[in-house]
């Protein structure tokens, strides 16, 4: 039997050798996300890719004194292949952000083909990596990646994730603002998808089940449309980048913790889910326990209030369309 010290040494060496690739690393999210991944001690090899500037971002980030190698690539000299080969986790924030007046779905025409092409490269060069999609519209880009990986025969539903962590961070923060509490002790489960009415906070499962109706309604609206606050405030210069980098780094860190075999690693994520598959909804965000193979357990929604049941029904209608749009795009534009 291994001694406690030997076990600790074994588990620490098993959990400190991951290659992480960031595609879109020179963007508003990509840069701070790359910085935060450089600070993650489980990452030994950080590979940054963008159609512009990634070598500069890599040179900058590489001076931070943590024990990882940072490389930066552009499309020249097989940059994407070099970025992806050997990656354990690929994070994709490549694509255009919203401007005021746009919905996330308005980004589809530009981002669908960017994500499709990057997914093809993932299928070719890092087919067994975990893949975390940040690029919007997440409700459609995740199905796009799934279809591309299926067409290459390398789709692993346990390793494809839509990043919805920002909705959960916002929910905690906004609830804590209403209650005058510490957001760290206000966990809120958020399920569904990542856009407007598909974002469904389950406040009945929080510590504050009995909020006055006007407060409840305003809070739900703020959680569902929190992204718009940032888009409006940035006034044409983009959408959430810094809070998203924090959310993406938290999610990535949890994926690595899961791969490393740590216990009880739970994050919300938009995944290939059995929850509403019989209704034709193949992807849904709920709490997921992460493990060495990626998704370990997909949690159910738990007990819902009548208002939450209604929001789920509305969310499912939009989700079905968003998912079908992504799948159809790949069929029409393989
Ligand atoms: P940005 O324009 O600042 O950065 C995007 C980067 O992607 C740019 O550096 C660009 O050069 C790069 N890029 C474009 N095409 C590429 C390609 N084919 N290969 C590699 N890189 C490519 O945008 P941003 O603010 O960083 O946002 C990126 C995406 O993330 C947007 O679609 C945005 O809507 C989305 N987003 C998602 C969430 C979420 O919660 N999931 C939150 C915020 C933003
Ligand atoms: C967000 O939630 O902040 C992102 O999805 C970006 C956006 O377009 O709002």
UniProtKB/TrEMBL annotation:
The keyword Ribosomal protein does not apply. GO terms for molecular function: L-malate dehydrogenase (NAD+) activity. Residues 19-162 form the Lactate/malate dehydrogenase N-terminal domain. InterPro entries: L-lactate/malate_DH (IPR001557), Lactate/malate_DH_C (IPR022383), Lactate/malate_DH_N (IPR001236), Lactate_DH/Glyco_Ohase_4_C (IPR015955), Malate_DH_AS (IPR001252), Malate_DH_type1 (IPR010097), NAD(P)-bd_dom_sf (IPR036291). Coiled coil: none annotated. It comes from the Eukaryota. It catalyses: (S)-malate + NAD(+) = oxaloacetate + NADH + H(+). Substrate binds at residues 98, 104, 136, 170. Signal peptide: none annotated. Transmembrane segments: none annotated. Homodimer. Belongs to the LDH/MDH superfamily. MDH type 1 family. NCBIfam families: MDH_euk_gproteo (TIGR01772). This is Malate dehydrogenase. The lineage of its organism: Eukaryota, Fungi, Dikarya, Ascomycota, Saccharomycotina. The gene is MDH1.
